[in-house]
Every structure is written in structure tokens, then in C-alpha cells.
Automatic annotation (TrEMBL):
A Gene Ontology BP annotation from the UniProt entry: bacterial-type flagellum assembly
Lineage per the UniProt record: Bacteria, Pseudomonadati, Pseudomonadota, Betaproteobacteria, Burkholderiales
Region ranges (Disordered): 1-25, 359-412
Acidic residues bias locations: 381-394
Protein name (Swiss-Prot/TrEMBL): Flagellar biosynthetic protein FlhB
Basic and acidic residues composition bias: residue spans: 362-380, 403-412
Keyword Transmembrane included in the entry's annotation: yes
Family statement: Belongs to the type III secretion exporter family.
Gene3D superfamilies: 6.10.250.2080, secretion proteins EscU (3.40.1690.10)
Described function: Required for formation of the rod structure in the basal body of the flagellar apparatus. Together with FliI and FliH, may constitute the export apparatus of flagellin.
Length: 412
């Protein structure tokens, strides 16, 4: 499909995509890096352990060329001698085998990390399809792999040939030298040729590693639709989440509204803001905000207050200060104690008046509200008390958070 073409895959792989690729055994690997590591381990191992290997080889040669008349016609002694020589050769090559084995393990890990996946070992029958096989051979990646192989052969061949050509006189002079000196000179020439070959492999590996990383990243690249689909799978459908969020807000608001009939007073703006306060002597350290809102929510709070005979007081500065600076179910901060105390005193006087009669109490006016708490912000068309309602939901599910919120009720 066009949406899955390489031209459409413009987005970098997500962490989930990378993890899934690793689970399937797909990691960046460089064959040239492994070849360079094996060749280097063999060369430097042979160079560093040349004295030890030479001693073992000398023992092998001495044992191979030392025989008597009895050993020639005794088959058992010939087999024993062959076994001894084989063990001596194994001891000579064992360090090299260990080094190359470690190189074969470490080289892939250096690029793609340690990975053991059973999925990479599962048989894939589509690889037996000759048509798909020809497609892979003649694909861009197949052509690039062929080019890399030819370049590797060419570079190694040219470097080896140049090294041999530069020392051709030394090679021809070996036949004129004593055997001991000729062997040492020959070993030196072999080491020089091997070192130049290792240098050539290093050059090839240095070119192949960035290419394999680029090829791996290109293979993991994703389309914008794939990124969106994965995001929806991880985070959920935004439309569904929006509906759930709206339902949660409605439930939280209904729970808040259920506390309005139990409030002692509702402080209003009078039209935009409404804040319900409650105080129980002996159970609360200070009055707390049990409901608040603007616009439609504020209107509903006022309606419930009228229906349940909860006193309402028009005090715009105090209403704004309480709304913006006190969270739901949080205590009134100390800087507003004086103003709230006057309001509650009026409420208690109003209750005595309604019960026993007498002079009607005067509504408090000119309350002491610090100017920095009276934030005259623009009122949005929609209710903007949602965040505080959701904060209360979180506090209700976390007792420790609830204690912190009550202790920090004056925080804006």
C-alpha cells in the first residue's frame, strides 16, 4: 500500500517499535565488524603468543621427526604418536581459538547489544520461495551487499598485494639466508602482510557500521498513521478518553453539589462566582470550602442554597479570593480568617434572628480581603473549576495527599 511505502515512512521509530523489533530478533548487525574482530583477534593473539605457540610447534616437529625402527612397524605406537602430536597442536592453537571465540561474541554485542530471541530461530517458509529470493537478490539492499563484498575483496586484495610487492625483494632473499634466519624473516613478513590486511578490514568495518545503523533505522521507520495508531493503543482513543473524562467531571460535580445543602453560607460575586463554606466547631480547625464554581456551576450552587435555606452573602472580593486561592475541601488560609469570621458571625446572628426574632443582623460590608488575593481574571464562557474538582477526586483516593491539601489550603 502507498501508506506503507518508504516515501511515507518519515517518522522515527518509537520505543515500543524498537522493543518489538528486538523481540523479533531485529537489531543492527555488521558482518564486516565481526570479520574485522575475528581477524584482529587471530592476528594479535598469534603475535602476542608467538613464543608460546613456537614452543608447542617445535615440540610437535621434534616428536614428528623422532622415530626408531620399532615405531615404524608398530601401528599402536604410530597412533599414540599421532594423538600426542594432535594434542600438542591443540594446545598451541587453544589460546587463538579462545580469543577468536570471544571476538565472535563481543563484536555483535558492541553494535546491537546482547540479544537472545527464539523468534529469529523460527523457520520462515517464505524464504524458500524462489521468486521472493530473486527479489531479495536483485533488490537495492542485495545490490549494496554485493557491492560491499566486492569492495571488501578489492580492498583486502589490493592492500595484501601492495604489502607483498613492497617486500618482494625480502621474500626472494629468503632462499639465500640460513634456515633459522629465514624462518624469522618469513614470520616477520607474514606478520606485516597480516597487519596491513587487518588495517584494510578496519577501513571496511568503519564504513559498514554506520551504513548498517542507517539501514536499521530506515527499516524501523514508521508512517504517521502507524505512530498515531500506536499512540492510540498506548494511551487509548482520545474520543473515548474525552467521554470518560466528561463523565468523571459530571460525577465529581454532582458529589460537590451534594455538599451545598450542608454548607453554612454561600459567598457570591453575585453572578459569576459562588463559594460554599462550612465550619463545625470542635471538628474543624478552620472553615473550609466545600463547593465553588463560576457561571453555570455558580448558578446551580445558588439554586441549591435557596432550596435548602442556606444563607447567601454578596461579597465579590471575598468570593473571588476564596475561589482562586482555596482548593475544594481545603481550609481557609489564615489571611482570610478575619473576613470569613465576620461572615460566619453574621450567619450565627441570622440563625438566632430566624429562631428567636429581634433585630435583623446587618450584612457585613467592606471585608478585609488582601488585594493580592482578589485576582480579577477574565471569566471564561465555560466553568473553569474543573481542575479543582479533579484535584479533589485525586485527594479522595490518596489519604496522604488529602492531608497535604488541607495543610496547604492557602496555596494558590
Amino acid at each position: 500500500m502507498a501508506e506503507d511505502s518508504d516515501l511515507e515512512k518519515t517518522e522515527s521509530a518509537t520505543p515500543r517499535r524498537r522493543q518489538k523489533a528486538r523481540e523479533e530478533g531485529q537489531v543492527a548487525r555488521s558482518r564486516e565488524l565481526v570479520s574485522f574482530a575475528l581477524l584482529s583477534a587471530g592476528f594479535f593473539g598469534a603475535w602476542g603468543l608467538s613464543d608460546q605457540i613456537g614452543g608447542h610447534l617445535e615440540g610437535m616437529l621434534r616428536g614428528a621427526f623422532r622415530f626408531d625402527h620399532a615405531s615404524v612397524f608398530d601401528t599402536n605406537r604410530m597412533l599414540i604418536g599421532a594423538g600426542t602430536t594432535s594434542m600438542e597442536g591443540l594446545r598451541a592453537l587453544l589460546p587463538i581459538l579462545i580469543l577468536t571465540g570471544l571476538a565472535a561474541l563481543v563484536a555483535p554485542i558492541a553494535l546491537g547489544g546482547w540479544l537472545l530471541s527464539s523468534k529469529s530461530l523460527e523457520p520462515k517458509w517464505n524464504r524458500l520461495n524462489p521468486i521472493e529470493g530473486l527479489g531479495r537478490v536483485f533488490s537495492l539492499n542485495g545490490i549494496l551487499q554485493l557491492g560491499m563484498s566486492l569492495a571488501k575483496t578489492l580492498v583486502v586484495g589490493v592492500i595484501g598485494s601492495l604489502a607483498f610487492w613492497n617486500h618482494k625483494d625480502d621474500v626472494l632473499a629468503l632462499v639465500t639466508q640460513p634456515a633459522t634466519f629465514a624462518i624469522a624473516s618469513g614470520a616477520h613478513l607474514i606478520a606485516v602482510c597480516c597487519a596491513t590486511t587487518v588495517a584494510g578490514m578496519f577501513l571496511i568495518a568503519a564504513l559498514d557500521v554506520p551504513y548498517q545503523i542507517w539501514q536499521y533505522e530506515k527499516k524501523l521507520r514508521m508512517t504517521k498513521e502507524e505512530v498515531k495508531r500506536e499512540h492510540r493503543e498506548n494511551e487509548g482513543d482520545p474520543h473515548v478518553k474525552g467521554r470518560i473524562r466528561a463523565q468523571q467531571r459530571a460525577i465529581s460535580r454532582r458529589r460537590m453539589m451534594s455538599k451545598v445543602p450542608k454548607a453554612d453560607v454561600v459567598v457570591t460575586n453575585p453572578t459569576h462566582f459562588a463559594v460554599a463554606l462550612q465550619y463545625t466547631d470542635g471538628k474543624m480547625r478552620a472553615p473550609k470550602v466545600v463547593a465553588k464554581g463560576v457561571n453555570l456551576v455558580a448558578a446551580r450552587i445558588r439554586e441549591l442554597a435557596v432550596e435548602n435555606n442556606v444563607p447567601m452573602l454578596e461579597a465579590p472580593p471575598l468570593a473571588r479570593a476564596l475561589y482562586y486561592n482555596v482548593r475544594l475541601d481545603a481550609e481557609v488560609p489564615g489571611v482570610l480568617y478575619s473576613a470569613v469570621a465576620e461572615v460566619l458571625a453574621w450567619v450565627y446572628q441570622l440563625r438566632r434572628f430566624n429562631t428567636h426574632g429581634g433585630a435583623e443582623p446587618v450584612k457585613p460590608d467592606d471585608l478585609d480581603v488582601p488585594a493580592e488575593l482578589d485576582k480579577r481574571r477574565p471569566i471564561a464562557d465555560e466553568d473553569d473549576d474543573i481542575e479543582d474538582i479533579e484535584d479533589v477526586e485525586e485527594v479522595n483516593t490518596n489519604p496522604r495527599a488529602g492531608n497535604d491539601a488541607r495543610n496547604d489550603g492557602g496555596r494558590a
